Amino acid sequence: MTLLPRLALCLALLLPIAAPAQNAQAFFDNYLAMRARLDTLVKNRDFAEVMPVFGDQTDPAELEALERRVREIYPRDFENVALIRRQDMDHGFRQELIAYWEGTQYIYIYIVLHDRDDGIVALVFNFNSEFDELNAKF
Predict the structure, then answer these.
(1) Per residue in 91-117, is it b (16+ CB within 10 Å) or e — as a string?
(2) Is Signal among this UniProt entry's keywords (predicted)?
(3) Is the C or the N end of the chain the one with fewer CB within 10 Å?
(4) β-strand 80-88 against 93-102: which pairing, if any?
(5) C-alpha distances in angstroms, 66 versus 51, 93, 106?
(6) 26-135 has CATH 1.10.3470 classification
(7) 34 touches 28 (CB < 8 A)
(8) Among candidate residues 129, 17, 127, 118, the one with its CA nearest the CA of residue 73
(9) Rounded CA gap, 127 and 130, in Å?
(10) Per mean pLDDT, which range of 14-28, 105-119, 121-135 is the poorest?
(11) What are phi and psi of 26, to 5 degrees?
């Protein structure tokens, strides 16, 4: 390898590697702002909106179908919410399990967050009507 190709290779290795852009909607100023957004959307059963806000890039038509299904299973908005499990990890990471309910109908949210100096990022977001499915992630 001659000097010019070696120099080009060295320069290429010094350039930053492009990474997929972070979904700006998954970024929040702080935990309270994130929870306010999450609680409002889930309590109102707005899953066609909650999924993209928390990083899901599913087709809008599929999200609308998902929301219709959620509204069939849960015909009334959720009135109650409780953080039922939280595990702090190193370097600002944590996972949480949040319950929403109305009467005897429950839905659970599992979320992995990274608390950074510039705000909080929702990295993983799952929901399920089965507690054991999400509780097993801890």
Answers:
(1) eeebbbbbbbbbeeebbbbbbbbeeee
(2) yes
(3) N
(4) antiparallel
(5) 10, 29, 17
(6) no
(7) yes
(8) 129
(9) 9
(10) 14-28
(11) -85, 5
Instruction: With beta carbons less than 8 A apart as the criterion, state whether 117 and 132 touch.
Output: no
Q: Which amino acid is at 29?
A: D
pTM over cut 0.85: no
**If we measure between CA atoms, which residue out of 54, 62, 70 comes closest to residue 105?**
70
Q: Is the alpha carbon torsion for 82, 116, 26, 19 positive or negative? A: negative
* DSSP 8-state code for residue 103: T
- Strands laid side by side in the 119-128 sheet: 27-28, 119-128, 105-116, 93-102, 80-88
> Could you give the count of Cα atoms lying within 13 Å of 117 in the half-sphere of its Cβ?
0
Q: What is the token pair recorded at 30?
A: 């702080």
Tokens of 66: 């998902």
Q: At 2, list the tokens.
A: 């001659």
Q: Give tens-digit pLDDT for 7-61.
A: 343 333 333 322 233 344 589 999 999 999 999 999 999 999 998 888 777 788 9
Query: What is the dihedral angle through the alpha carbons of 106, 110, 115, 119, rounded to the nearest 10 degrees?
Result: -60
